[in-house]
């Protein structure tokens, strides 16, 4: 049963969400909806209740905030602030499309949407975020450049599609346990140093299928970005003709 204190906190969180950042509330795969982490998990624990069992990694993002570029060299860049591993898995097949549903998204928060995957080499549920090695599997940024305007971005499609955006699990990926890292990089303040806002979300996947391609390497979260990268330090309001999505090259070996 929820306490009055917990319900009060929940109401405050939803009020804050309407004005600031957001989080992935659930994912769908083959019409099956699976709940992801919710920032309210922390208040369950504070009220003597166990962490809700979800595949999503729980973070100290109760302010519905972001990871800033000055934290690119900390473990927080992996899956958000002070993250704890998800306690279960979303079952998917290699080649499936996962749809990530965000609780909301502000129109002013334009930027790219990027997906990564990391093998767990065992159970994901006992890992720390700093142990994960990432491979980029999808990305979308500036979709349409508009002279005299800020253009159409991947986040605009997110809003148009009821705060939902897809990521395809590589069809030849070897079966096993993985963490998918799904993030939005927000650029409305990125014209100044440390102005970009990064919203990473992580989720445990149990991948099945006959794929044979394993990922034996990857990039540590602390090496994904630099605060001076052209896709991190960029003026959104300069009527961009193009945009360089930050991070490593797409990993396509398991496509």
Automatic annotation (TrEMBL):
- UniProt keywords, alphabetically: Disulfide bond, Monooxygenase, Oxidoreductase, Secreted, Signal
Tell me the compartments it is located in: Secreted
User: What is the superkingdom listed in this entry's lineage?
Assistant: Eukaryota
**Signal sequence, start to end:** 1-19
One Gene Ontology MF term: monooxygenase activity
Question: Record's PANTHER family?
Answer: ENDO-BETA-1,4-GLUCANASE D, PUTATIVE (AFU_ORTHOLOGUE AFUA_1G12560)-RELATED
Protein name from the UniProt record: Lytic polysaccharide monooxygenase
């Amino acid at each position: 049963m929820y306490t009055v204190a917990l319900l009060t906190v929940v109401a405050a969180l939803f009020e804050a969400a309407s004005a600031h950042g957001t989080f992935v509330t659930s994912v769908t795969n083959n019409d099956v909806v699976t709940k992801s982490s919710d920032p309210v998990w922390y208040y369950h624990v504070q009220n003597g209740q166990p962490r809700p069992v979800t595949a999503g990694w729980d973070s100290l993002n109760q302010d519905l905030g972001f990871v800033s570029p000055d934290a690119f060299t900390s473990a927080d860049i992996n899956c958000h602030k002070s993250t704890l591993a998800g306690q279960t898995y979303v079952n998917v097949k290699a080649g499936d499309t996962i749809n990530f549903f965000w609780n909301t998204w502000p129109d002013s928060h334009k930027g790219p949407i990027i997906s990564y995957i990391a093998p767990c080499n065992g159970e994901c549920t006992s890992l720390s975020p700093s142990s994960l090695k990432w491979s980029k599997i999808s990305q979308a940024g500036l979709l349409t450049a508009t002279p005299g305007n800020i253009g159409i971005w991947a986040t605009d499609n997110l809003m148009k599609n009821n705060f939902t955006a897809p990521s395809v699990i590589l069809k030849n990926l070897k079966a096993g346990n993985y963490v998918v890292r799904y993030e939005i990089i927000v650029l409305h303040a990125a014209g100044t140093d440390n102005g970009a806002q990064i919203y990473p979300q992580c989720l445990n996947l149990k991948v099945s299928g006959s794929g044979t391609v394993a990922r034996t390497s990857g990039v540590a979260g602390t090496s994904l970005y630099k605060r001076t990268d052209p896709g991190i330090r960029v003026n959104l309001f300069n009527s961009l003709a193009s945009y360089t999505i930050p991070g490593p090259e797409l990993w396509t070996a398991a496509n």
